[in-house]
Each structure stands twice: as structure tokens, then as C-alpha cells.
Specification:
Spore Coat Polysaccharide Biosynthesis Protein SpsA, Chain A, three-stranded mixed beta sheet, 10 strands
């Protein structure tokens, strides 16, 4: 089974090299890495171009600004049976793909996700968030699927069957952030089960929390999550206030 890693990148010259390097060092044997340059005005494209000697890497441009426009461009380019979502400041362990791949041998599994480890945060924030995601998010994902309320994914650490995502219409570009991962999860969950693995951890930056504050970010996440769980449309002021959250 081939896996396509999609990395949207907007002005990520400070972070993207570590992400691409970690993606290319996966122990899993059959994968490709697609970096989508989304109108960057810094040196993102130059940094990624240094890795193009590796035949597994592709660099494409998406002129329409926005995370989900970039992911849709990656989806259109992908040749793998499974799509792996990775943000441009995420650093997966070398066995990230190898950990996820066996679960797709079960035909009823359509997607899976796992926790973030905010590696550059203060230790108390880092471990509080990691433990919360490891123990609470898995139960929450099980519960809302059991109640047929939808499903749950973490956007920068997720695997989705490519065919299911295409059947679902791809990514919903009416959304920008704070609801996009829940929207994607709810739509692909119509085709199968979404799993949450506590050991499928990806390191990522806590820069948004540092810039905007923990309570501001959590309020936006919670508002978007519970709004969608009630089957309502998410306020566009919430989802379009920024087209790239990082």
C-alpha cells in the first residue's frame, strides 16, 4: 500500500526543512512526499527545492490562498491509496507511516489520527496537552462515532483513504481552520470507521498558542467542534479570519 504524505506550506522557511527531512526518513518502504507551496513570499520554495534530488519528493504550487486549497492540490497530485496529512511545522518519528499502515488492512477503517506533542512549549503545557490528547481524545472519538454524531481527526497528524476522501468531495474550501479537520472527519466517516491511536504521536510547534494565547485558541476550537457536533454550520467569521493559522 502506497502512502502519499501531503505537506501544505505557506511562508514556512524556518520550519519546513525539518518536516521534509523527517518525512523522507520514514522506515515504511512505499511512500511519496508532496509539498504544496501555497503562495509563499519567503524562501519556502527554495528550501524545499534542495530536496528534489530525492525522487520520492514532489513540489507543486497552489496559487489559491488557504490550507484546504493546498491540501486539495496535494490530493489531486497523490498516487497513494492512503493520504497522510502533515503540517509544515510537524516532525514525525521515523516509524510514523509504519505505525499507521497496518490498520488499513482492516477494510472498515477509513481514517485514523493521533496526538500532537508541542515540542517547543513549556514542559507543563507540553505534557498536559499530550496526556489530554492521549487519554481523552480517543474516548471522545469513540463516543461521537458511537452516537453517530460524526468523528474526530487532528488535521496535521491524520491518515485517510484517498478513495474515500475523493468520494466525499475532497476538502471543504469554504472552511479555513478551527473546523476543517472535524468537517473532513464527519464526511469520510460515512464510508467507514475512524480510529484514534494514542501512540501515533507527531511533534509540532506551539507557536500559535504562544502568539494568540491558550484560552483564545481553545475557545475557537471548542466553539467550532461543538457547533459541528450539533449539526450546524460554523460561523464563517471563525473559520476565515486567517487562511493559514501557523
Amino acid at each position: 500500500m502506497k502512502i502519499s504524505i501531503i505537506i501544505p506550506a505557506y511562508n514556512e522557511e524556518k520550519y519546513v526543512a525539518k518536516t521534509v527531512d523527517a518525512a523522507l526518513k520514514q522506515t515504511y518502504p512505499d511512500f511519496e512526499v508532496i509539498v504544496v507551496n501555497n503562495n509563499s513570499t519567503d524562501g519556502t520554495k527554495t528550501v524545499v527545492s534542495q530536496y528534489l534530488s530525492d525522487s520520492r519528493l514532489s513540489l507543486i504550487d497552489e496559487p489559491k490562498q488557504g490550507l484546504l486549497f493546498a491540501r486539495n492540490a496535494g490530493l489531486a497530485h497523490a498516487t497513494g491509496e492512503v493520504l497522510a496529512q502533515l503540517d509544515a511545522d510537524c516532525i514525525p518519528d521515523h516509524d510514523w507511516l509504519a505505525t499507521a499502515a497496518p490498520y488499513f488492512e482492516k477494510q472498515d477503517v477509513v481514517a485514523l489520527s493521533g496526538p500532537y506533542d508541542y515540542f517547543d512549549a513549556a514542559w507543563y503545557f507540553r505534557y498536559f496537552m499530550l496526556l489530554n490528547q492521549k487519554f481523552f481524545f480517543g474516548f471522545m472519538n469513540w463516543f461521537i462515532q458511537k452516537r453517530k454524531m460524526g468523528a474526530f481527526l487532528i488535521g496535521g497528524n491524520a491518515f485517510i483513504r484517498t478513495e474515500a476522501l475523493r468520494k466525499a468531495g475532497g476538502y471543504n474550501t469554504d472552511l479555513a481552520f478551527y473546523a476543517e479537520d472535524i468537517d473532513t472527519a464527519c464526511r469520510v466517516a460515512k464510508f467507514g470507521k475512524i480510529m484514534y491511536l494514542s501512540n501515533l504521536v507527531v511533534k509540532t510547534s506551539a507557536r500559535r498558542f504562544k502568539q494568540q494565547g491558550f484560552f483564545t485558541i481553545q475557545k475557537k476550537y471548542n466553539t467550532a467542534f461543538f457547533t459541528m457536533m450539533r449539526g450546524r454550520s460554523v460561523d464563517q467569521k471563525l473559520t476565515t479570519e486567517t487562511v493559514h493559522p501557523r
